[in-house]
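Assemble and predict.
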Amino acid sequence: MKMNAEMLNSLRAIGQGGVVVHLTTCSSKGVPNTVGERFFSAFGDEHLVIADMFAQKTKVNLNENPFGVITVAHPVKGRYWAFRGPCMIIMWGEDENFDFHGAKAGDVLREWGDWASKDPPSEVPPDIRPPAVCQRGVITLKVDEAYSWKPDISGEKLL
Amino acid sequence: MKLTDEMKNVLKVGSDSSVVTYITTSSCDGSCNVHLQPYTDVYKDEFIFAPDLFAQKTKININENRLAVLTIAHPSEGKTWAFRGPCNLIQWGHPPKFNFHGVTAGDVLEKWGDWGSLESFDSVDDDIKPKAIGQRGVFVLKVEEVYSYKADESGSKIL
Amino acid sequence: MAILSPRMKGWLERFGCHIGTATKSGFPTTIVVEQAAVEGDSVVSFDLTDAQVNHIKDNMQENPYVALAPHAIASIRAAYQFKGAATLSGNTLKVDVKEIYCTKPGPEAALRLDTLPQEHVIKFEESRWRDVGPPK
């Protein structure tokens, strides 16, 4: 599913004028995990990507249940968006021709595999900035569905 | 508890008689995880260090229950040892003065934070060698107990 | 129910496992059993010595969910971890495997295999290791 121009314009790291998002995954038994993500961007017009720097339960969940939801957290400014679809971590070491629903592992890693160099978190205050980063891969979500999380219409389809 | 010279020789980085080990951890409600660890070193005679290269559930367990058992997996002849004690993960980003049972994060990360500078990761066959490595920290196990896992004396104290 | 592949069965039977056990409050004890028998698709059976029984029997009573990781050279070549419910009867420990993970260092580390169709597991093994049969 292709995202619209307004979405693509907003779906990038907050330091680039974009947004902070939450990524929700869950275990195969249904225990959810929701974490805030700053290193975030659209990739093409059908995928969203997040740097895998500190993922723990997210990674465990995606390894047994490769599905996720990304919700806009801040600043919302009317963007009550939730994106749902298959999700995995394309790790350094993956075959570069590996294809995840139209996204090639090599392309994803070349563009976003060293996020801190490309887009350093310089806007983050020193007390909450990660002191050191070590990226192992790129969390990649293929957008199959976009719905609103606005309380009074929650679940309504956006696309 | 101080390890014997024989144990130190086996577990030290670059040892001629080096071994592959397992680290067993448990969640706080008793769900175990056994994690392969090919690289180890000994510090101040009573700590065993190992790099965090691909740990996932081990890290989650250590975050909620700081205990581990390290067993010799291969080659184990004459070395049926199990080392148990408090265990933590010193990560890039810990304050240098962070102290775990007398070990400080700064000392650990300065020397062991880039394990590849201590020993090569290339000594294994191509089909089992990781294609890319990203170290996030160092596991520190303070040995408080050594028991034998030899079948006919399993659990008997060695140290 | 998890299904063990022929490759998994071969390595488990030949080399046995490090068996991680714990109290209900999470105090771990690992024992090592150097061979095993696989019964059907998912049960791994170990013959324990009296010392091994005494070493883990309290844990088994309190918390029978255990983790298995292949021993010896299998720790390198057979990078799997199995988890399941154990039953200790006399000197026989039977583990009904419920979860299977790949533990090969790299992008596939911690990938859960028992949730994949069996034909996918076989293809995965063929793509990751040169040896897919029993250990030589």
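Chain B has three helices and ten strands.
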